[in-house]
Amino acid sequence: MIDLRLLREDPDRVRASQRARGEDVGLVDALLSADERRRSSSVRFDELRSEQKQLGKLIPKATGDEKAELLTKAGELSAAVKAADAAQDAAAEETQRLLRQLGNLVHSDVPVGGEEDFVVLETIGAPRDFAAEGFEPRDHQEIGQLLGAIDTERGAKVSGSRFYYLTGVGALLELALVNAAIAQATAAGFIPMLTPALVKPRAMEGTGFLGQAAENVYHLEKDDYYLVGTSEVALAAYHMDEIIDAAKLPLRYAGFSPCFRREAGTYGKDTRGIFRVHQFDKVEMFSYVAPEDAEAEHQRLLDWEKQWLTGLGLPFQVIDVATGDLGASASRKFDCEAWIPTQGKYRELTSASNCNEFQARRLSVRMRDGKHVKPLATLNGTLCAVPRTIVAIFENHQQPDGSVTVPEVLRPYLGGREVLEPVTA
RNA sequence: GGAGGCUUCGCCUAGUCUGGUCUAUGGCGCCGCACUGCUAAUGCGGUUUGGGGUAACCCCCCAUCCCGGGUUCAAAUCCCGGAGCCUCCGCCA
């Protein structure tokens, strides 16, 4: 959530941010009035409670009529205190409820608009010219079948649409990707983490996924658990309710976990292959930094993503995601989109978000900076979302015979294999 | 799944039986000051977090003894519910 103080001092800035996101501006006014009610009811409670405490000191010393009188008075006061307490609680709860509905403040450089209004910041590498090479590229689904790497048919039989099996070299390729990604992250100073895939409501809510994104989250009703859509959730909540010494920052984690997404409202979209699936594995980078270091860290996360994609030999572009497509937590988001030859366009492979103090406030993660305790900033960035990376590798590194050249960085993790060959059916 | 124990201001800990003087004890750690011509040692002071008052510091008020209810004029303390941790038993990869 955002800083209440900032809301009080500069409500127009918050309104502008809401407008840019295409969200309800009325929320800001409701919030201001709830906050005022919270403040005044809290002042009243404090006064009454103070009076009650004074009285409580006199009672044990008093005797006889004097005591009876004091007890009567205390009884009346007690009722008033209870009422004031209830009013205070109600106002505080209302303020919290409204505050949690508010998205993060949008960074001023973010392009305003919807999904299509992103700005391309950079293009790295160039798409292969398959025509010049004299063959028509196969899509990843077809290559996956030729290599015996992907089985979507049986995935659907067993679990339904958007499920798949990675088989043979497909399975090995995932393990290679994960190992290579973890190795890169570890070399960069990230602490490797295997994280829970089921989390409690507070973790999911605090990370900001139960707002507009809620329809894409799986929920286990019987136990009130949520399935994470990314290990970001578990990594953000890892330090929930803690105060971290400034000297320990930046704190960087590389999480690996399965990710579950309902993909509601995407019927008919990316239905072929494994580009958009309900379950996949992902290596995610997550940073806790001082707020003033957040923008620099955002750039660093992006650089590590670029290093990763470059190492895999994939042509890609970096975009500055527009306001309407940010998600509640991010103030700014950079996506790396890899070129997918058979689609003739760039598609999202990684995403780096600067949430500054938004998640930290909701999860109560703070830093101790000298005498002061304040919220810190959290950032997250994909290193390797496995299925999409496999899609990009298959399509970009395919040969006329359906074989796939293994990027050099992955070879050590694939027993030195340089090419994935079609299996004879 | 069954039985028992535990949870106090960074860590450890006193206090809970017998409600008010708990504005929570002591140790460790940490910070500051003093002192010995260095380090060490010693002494003194400080050290939970959140909200509010203040332009701000000092300071003051309120809340906070795992969480939520209840009893009471008054709850760390009594009662009920919940969570987490530990031990033992059962089951199990």
If you had to describe this structure to a student in words, what would you say it looks like?
Pathway: Aminoacyl-tRNA biosynthesis; selenocysteinyl-tRNA(Sec) biosynthesis; L-seryl-tRNA(Sec) from L-serine and tRNA(Sec): step 1/1. Catalyzes the attachment of serine to tRNA(Ser). Is also able to aminoacylate tRNA(Sec) with serine, to form the misacylated tRNA L-seryl-tRNA(Sec), which will be further converted into selenocysteinyl-tRNA(Sec). Keywords: Aminoacyl-tRNA synthetase, ATP-binding, Cytoplasm, Ligase, Nucleotide-binding, Protein biosynthesis. L-serine binds at residues 230-232, 261, 284, 380, 382. Homodimer. The tRNA molecule binds across the dimer. With 425 residues, the chain is of the alpha+beta class. The protein folds into two domains: 4-99, Serine-tRNA synthetase, tRNA binding domain (Helix Hairpins), CATH 1.10.287.40; 115-420, BirA Bifunctional Protein, domain 2, CATH 3.30.930. 41% of the residues lie in helices and 21% in strands. It contains 13 helices and 18 strands. The protein has helices at 4-9, 11-21, 26-58, 64-99, 130-133, 140-147, 152-159, 169-187, 201-207, 232-237, 294-311, 358-363, 386-396, and strands at residues 119-124, 150-151, 165-166, 191-194, 198-199, 219-220, 225-227, 243-245, 251-260, 279-289, 316-320, 332-340, 345-354, 366-369, 372-375, 377-385, 404-405, 419-420. The strands form five sheets. Strands 1-11-12-13-16-10-9-4 form an eight-stranded mixed β-sheet. Strands 5-7-6 form a three-stranded antiparallel β-sheet. The chain has a three-stranded mixed β-sheet with strand order 8-14-15, with no helix packed on it. A hairpin with a 4-residue loop joins strand 12 (332-340) and strand 13. It is elongated and about 105 Å long. The model has no long low-confidence stretch (mean pLDDT 92). It binds one RNA strand of 93 nucleotides through helix 3 and helix 4.
